[in-house]
Amino acid sequence: MNASVSQFTKTDAEAALAEVREVQQGFASSEDGVVAAVDADVPSAEQVEAFRARAQKQRQRGKRDLERRHSGVASVLKTVVLNERVIGSSFQRYFSSIENGIYVIGRRGEIFVGEAAAAKIVEKIEDMLESISQELVSEEEAIKIQYEVASTATGFVKPDYIGAAAEHEVQIRTRSGLKAVGLFMRYDALLQKVQAMYWNGHIEDTYVQDIELRCKRQFQKLFNFIRSSINGMYRKGTAVKSAAPAGSAAALVSEGAQAEAA
Hints:
- The chain is mainly alpha-helical.
- Helices cover 71% and strands 5% of the residues.
- The radius of gyration is 21 Å and the shape is elongated.
- The N and C termini lie close together (10 Å).
- This is DUF1845 domain-containing protein.
């Protein structure tokens, strides 16, 4: 048995399972069918309404979770202001679950899947964040040059916002969560420049919509991956707990230990 895994007590394991369960509930309003409904060429009225209802539920829960504070944890408090409606909505829907999931996977993952497997999940999340960042870089560089030239022209219109789409002070407990916040803010800044270019006739509205859709899909993909990882951890934890003898201190850690030994 891996030394670090063997040090977990029954109390540790039960606390970990409860923590994973709490985070899992934050993902409960998301279903794989959402993507199919959105991607369909001609979604039905029922699908559209179901998607809107689910998105609203995600936003409501997400906004509540953004207000939560966790004592006794090294963290960063950051004020996030997002002007663009689509970016603000995506942030409210996805960020809290993403950050909570990252935190719990890093803190509790090895109990359920072993240290190596948990590290691979964390690495995959980092790769997904880096992929979003790299795609943003190419868009940012392209629009920056166009914007700098266009904005010096006489009569250039710079649209403004009468209020932010989303403004929250959030507690961030992970470096990856901090990266995710930065990506939302970069998307918002990019889209503001894209909107200005559209207002001045330099790009088509379809390009604006493409940036919006790309942002939503990228963060939904990250959200879904973390959700699947959390669900897998919880299933393994409950399966091992139910199969183990009552009172067994190894009930929830045995499977993670086996994964490490394999």
